[in-house]
Amino acid sequence: DLDSRSCDPPTFAVFEGPLLSQFEPVTEKVIRELIIKSPTKSCMLDPIPTSLTKQCLNDLVSLITVIVNASLSAGIVPQQFKQALVTPLLKKPGLDSNDMKNFRPVSNLPFISKILEKVVLTQLRNHLSSNNLLEICQSAYRKDHSTETAVLSVLDGLLVSADERLVSLVALLDLSAAFDTLDHTILLQRLEMTYGVRGTVLDWFASYLSERFQSVIVDGVVSASRPLVYGVPQGSVLGPVLFTLYSQPLSDVISDHDCDYHKYADDTELSKGASPDQFDSVQSCIQTCIGDVLIWMNSNKLKLNTDKTEVMPVGSASRVALVESECANIGGNSVPFKMSVKYLGVHLDQTLSMRQHIDSVCRASFLELRRAATIRLYLSQSATARLVAAMIISRLDYCNSVFAGLPADQVARLQRIQNNAARLVMKKRKRDHVTPLLKELHWLPVKFRCQYKIATLAYRHFEGSLPPYLSSSLCTYEPSRSLRSSKEKLLKIPKRNLKSVGERSFSFMAPSVWNSLPADLRNLPTLSQFKSNLKTFLFTQAFPQI
Asked: How far lies 74's CA from each of 57, 198, 203, in Å?
């Protein structure tokens, strides 16, 4: 049961830096670039289709610029921009379409309103970045951040803890209708007090949030319009960022309990490790932490879905076997420990073997291969290659950095998928030699694709574009004397205890892969040049005699 603190009003940290009180006007050039780069999608509420807007951009850009700048200077969002058509979409294929909880309400907004939001978002992000107001361990909706960097960070921490013979308790928190329950008053107070948004800018956000209306459209039938009193529209440009700012203080609640955590939008992972004989104290700490998270969420009009919250012990097989507990107490409910959990599309098991994730990738990929095979007769080779790249190779490449350092037999399972995909594209038989096919298609084998991803992330460490939570796990090698090697951009390889665990961590694999590259490759001036030359280098490594 929650104590009386659950009814306390939310508290706000006070920002004392430079304020964001006025928007800067934008030029026609900026508006033109935003429109050209935006997807050509139209809304029923648009006066003219987006495609026609782009065709007539030379005639319309000055008018659109005037509308945007008038909104920014007056701190008012036009009422026409605050009407949305909501299309219910199933969250995952195969879910029961009769259960309304399985749908995500995606808002379709007028095209010009999204252009206005993009202008505001750019200036808001500049203010947040220049004043270091962005949360370090929040990877959603940020440049140079992704689900892969988030998964790598979580996995690296768990592997290093397991290498130190600790058992970590991992909890994945699930929020119910997170974007739909935000309190506008709390959000505006947080923007003002915590993030230094004042004056006309604050008025603009108040106008943006107030008097919003939405209708639901199903099979072409539109419902009556209803006011949007709480929440931010899913499908908007600003909505996701406003949610992350709204929920950012939750990190302080977790940090107070000395727990590691990572957030991706409304997905929150927290963990804490200890030796097996001290696991009870770790479990107690995690339970207390989640209890305080519940209290904070109740004060801020958010709801933690305890039924979907998952808890799992993680470590080496011998250490996990010593854990006597079988469940945790979350919000007064007994939550049994899981054998595996799914975090941002990646299956993690108790020993981090990645076997279940590889099982899932193989199962889904072979299904798509069989489907593609049924229509191969009607497709050209180039069309088949594009289809395979979209439906199969993309699955192999998603978060493939987590495969680095795995046993060869596990990587071989993934390689068989790529081999079969190559035979399908080239119309070859099952027993035909696949290496010439991969070379002709210019496909790097799976092992080298993993190395490519790891090396690219390591380059970004030196470039300064790698997220701080990953960059902090890498240490640049600095020789004690001024030697020739000091100019070669080397990384220090940390000592690890277990090859099957510690040497699979990103903090070990990235220096190992990076230092093995030629010096002239490591010293290339731009990321695009590095990627191009890296692929050529790995291609010669993969196919040395062909």
From this structure: 25, 14, 8
Can you read off the two tokens belonging to residue 204? Answer: 């603009």
Q: Extract the tokens encoding 479.
A: 């020789």
For the record, the structure tokens of 225 come out as 């319009």
- Give the C-alpha separation, 68 to 58, whole Å: 16
pLDDT beyond 60 at 546: no
- The radius of gyration of the chain from alpha carbons, rounded to an integer in Å, stands at 26
Expressed in angstroms, the distance from the first to the final Cα of the chain is 68
Q: 31, 63 in Cβ contact below 8 A?
A: no
CA distance 87 to 6: 34
Reply yes or no on whether the pLDDT at 500 is more than 90: no
Residues in the chain: 546
Alpha helices, H only, 94-198: 111-130, 147-163, 184-193
Please check whether residue 348 is in contact with residue 355, taking contact to mean a CB–CB distance below 8 angstroms: no
3-state secondary structure of 300: coil
Q: What is the mean pLDDT of residues 380-389?
A: 96
- List all residues 6 or more positions away from 396 whose beta carbon is below 8 Å from its beta carbon: 361, 365, 414, 417, 418, 446, 449
What are the distances in angstroms from CA 296 to CA 10, 188, 242, 245, 303? Answer: 8, 17, 18, 15, 10
Whether residue 349 is predicted with pLDDT greater than 70 in this model: the reply is yes
Average pLDDT, the chain: 92
Contacts of residue 202, Cβ cutoff 8 Å, sequence gap at least 6: 21, 75, 188, 191, 192
Whole-number Cα distances in Å, 150 to 256, 320, 371, 413: 21, 24, 32, 25
The reported pTM is: 0.90
| CA dist list (Å): 329 to 261, 268, 276, 421 | 19, 18, 19, 46
